Here is the input.
Amino acid sequence: MPGVMNKKRYRVVVATTIGPYHKSRGLKGQDFFAYKQKRNKLIAVVSDGAGSAKYGKIGARYVCEQLCETLINASFQNIKQEIINAIEGVRDRLMVHRLNKQKNEDGLINFAATIVGLVYQNGKGVFFHIGDGAGIAMFENKKRTYTISEPENGIFSSETFFYTMDDWKDSLRFTSFENADSLFLMTDGVTCFALKKNFEALEKGFLPPIDAFLKNEKNTKKATRALKNTLETPKAKALSGDDKTLMWVKL
Amino acid sequence: MENQNNLTDDMIPYVEFADNANERTPCVLVLDCSGSMRGEPIKQLNTGLKALEQELKDDIDASSRVQILIIKACGKEDEAEVASDWVDAMNFTAPIMEAGGLTPLGKAISLALKKIEDQKDLYDSCGISSKRPWIFLVSDGEPTDYGWEQAAKECIEAQQAKKVIVHAIGTQGANLEKLGKFSILPPKRLVGLKFTEFFLWLSRSVSCVSKAAPHADDLLKDINAWGDE
Here is the structure.
């Protein structure tokens, strides 16, 4: 899926690749992303559909598209409740989805997917997050500080949390930030080499050079191709067999 | 000159990939080495374990990611003991198993669950991530130890709490109904004495899981090489 450098206020570059695990089996990728901006507000979401879920890709696509559509018109004053309401709205729609044979909450597990999203407006932003993947706000200062919305796994690394779970509200996390310079959203195929092992710090050699490059590269196609190629290097594939989605936003 | 420009355009310079993937995939074999395994069965079991050792060592990814523990259920006193303690596959040497005694599968599975819990604590204290452990329970008979039903119940509870995945495998003559009490998954039948085929399949499966994306589908579907159920 090609990335798009938006003509409005915020520049967005995004790349997604199918991991070698899915590719070798002739399967489609399970990641999805969407973003929308209106006046000075930006909504962006990336999602990783669970490979074990029959319609994980649909669950990922649905939540990305629906949250962008809903939240772009939401009030930032009460944004956390607006986000909860929007996710509930996605779940309600999936309960009557034609592929949800049970037509109730039990059928949602077939659409299992994670959420890493952000709402940004007038210098203030908030990440909302269920499961693994990560959101990062980078600040332009001498120390090059950053804020991370960290991945959350179960007791084992291969297990995480989804918005389709009954107790999804227990897993929903918010991380606020102000006056950031640029943002990253990513699925878990990227976090293993973008973040240190404890997920509390960045690997200096990965996101900072990408941030610097994308700030300077004004050509949309070149920026997107370079980002995609970087995610498809043999080293990246060897380190993670999963699908990889990385979105960058210049505020 | 044009090529150089293309190369520069196509890649983001100065990006480094940190290798944080020291994740482990723990795998436990609980093996029935009771008296009924004497002769050709124990010989085939040992041949199969040797094949497992070689296959894992030949797999670059599995050799560093998979960890093996072998527990044997045998002995006059209905004992369960560690035949080979936790070790990375690259350092695994197949133990030579001997047959004798009864079939204390309850004690063996309890020991396996305890060893898994201890190993998870060790992973956590070292900052090592891990996938959900597998236990393969292989028997040619049925449990003979007192209280095996309670051990089986605890084993089921551990699976329901998503702490472990248990596969029960019975050779010809094994009581699959009783072996099935240890797992929430249906027990499988090993055809003849195809231990080597089973262990080669096991090696490839565990290797596949060690490299698989999170939430991957069940990888243990194709058992045609060794099983008939």
Q: What stands out?
A: Strands of chain A lie at 11-17, 31-38, 41-48, 115-121, 124-130, 134-138, 146-149, 173-178, 182-186, 244-250. The two ends of chain A are 23 Å apart (CA to CA).
